[in-house]
Every structure is written in structure tokens, then in C-alpha cells.
Specification:
The protein is mainly beta. It has one domain (2-118): Sandwich (Immunoglobulin-like). The chain has no helices and nine strands. It has strands at residues 2-6, 9-23, 26-39, 45-56, 59-67, 75-76, 81-90, 94-105, 111-122. The strands form two sheets. Strands 4, 5, 6, 8 and 9 form a five-stranded antiparallel sheet that branches. It has a four-stranded antiparallel sheet with strand order 1-2-3-7, with no helix packed on it. A hairpin with a 2-residue loop joins strand 4 (45-56) and strand 5. The chain is elongated and about 50 Å long.
């Protein structure tokens, strides 16, 4: 598990290899990840958007930006957490992701970034 804390918001990431399949005559490697966003601060916060950098050993880095996470913009109260699962496809059995969430502190109306630690994506058969 990968973890990082920014301004009292703890991000934990757990990854899994989901398998391989062919799409458009190419082999693809499917990875899943589950992220828990835990509010260890004293104020309620809301996740408004996300920014990802996806690294693939056989392709160029891909940058992805979007609103919320899996269609939601969760409000996380002090002591509470929000967990969601998602995934990505890579052209190789080895890669990584990192990024940040844009958030708003409800008490101060401050906008801030919460960083997601770099997490590795690797198929079990690709490592010695």
C-alpha cells in the first residue's frame, strides 16, 4: 500500500493486476486501484477535480484531468473517509501513476492540492 498526507488529508492506494486482453489487435494489461481519502484535519473538505500522470513502460506518459472521482465530488468531514476503485489499461506489464486532487476547505474556502503518491502498476509475471 502507498500512502501520503497533505494538509491533514491522507491518501492510501492499493493496486491489483486484473489480467490481459486483446483490443484493436494489441495486447493490453489491466490494472485496478483502490484509493481511500481520509480526512485527518479539523475541517470538512470537498474533492472537486483530479489530475493524473500515467506512466507506461512502452508508451508516452498520459495526462488525465477530470471533475471529481468516478462521477462524484465527495464531501469528507473530519474523521471520515471516502473510498473508490478505478483502473487503467497499459500497453506494457509495468507502469505507474501519480497525481493530485484539487480540494476546497469549507471552513476557510481555501482551494488546495492533495498529492497522490506515485504507485507502481506491475503484473506479477513481469518481475523477478
Amino acid at each position: 500500500m502507498f500512502t501520503q498526507v497533505t494538509k491533514g488529508i491522507k491518501i492510501s492506494v492499493d493496486t491489483s493486476f486484473e489480467g490481459t486482453f486483446f483490443k484493436n489487435y494489441k495486447m493490453h494489461f489491466a490494472f485496478g486501484y483502490t484509493i481511500t481519502i481520509e480526512n485527518q484535519s479539523k475541517d470538512s473538505v470537498q474533492l472537486t477535480s483530479r489530475h493524473w500522470k500515467v506512466f507506461d513502460a512502452l508508451s508516452d506518459m498520459e495526462v488525465l484531468d477530470g471533475e471529481g472521482v468516478i462521477g462524484k465530488k465527495p464531501v469528507i468531514r473530519p474523521g471520515e473517509s471516502h473510498t473508490y476503485s478505478s483502473g487503467c489499461l497499459l500497453a506494457s506489464p509495468i507502469g505507474a501513476m501519480k497525481g493530485h486532487y484539487n480540494m476546497v476547505n469549507f471552513a476557510s474556502t481555501e482551494k488546495f492540492r492533495v498529492y497522490v503518491p506515485t504507485f507502481k502498476l506491475s503484473a506479477p509475471f513481469a518481475l523477478n
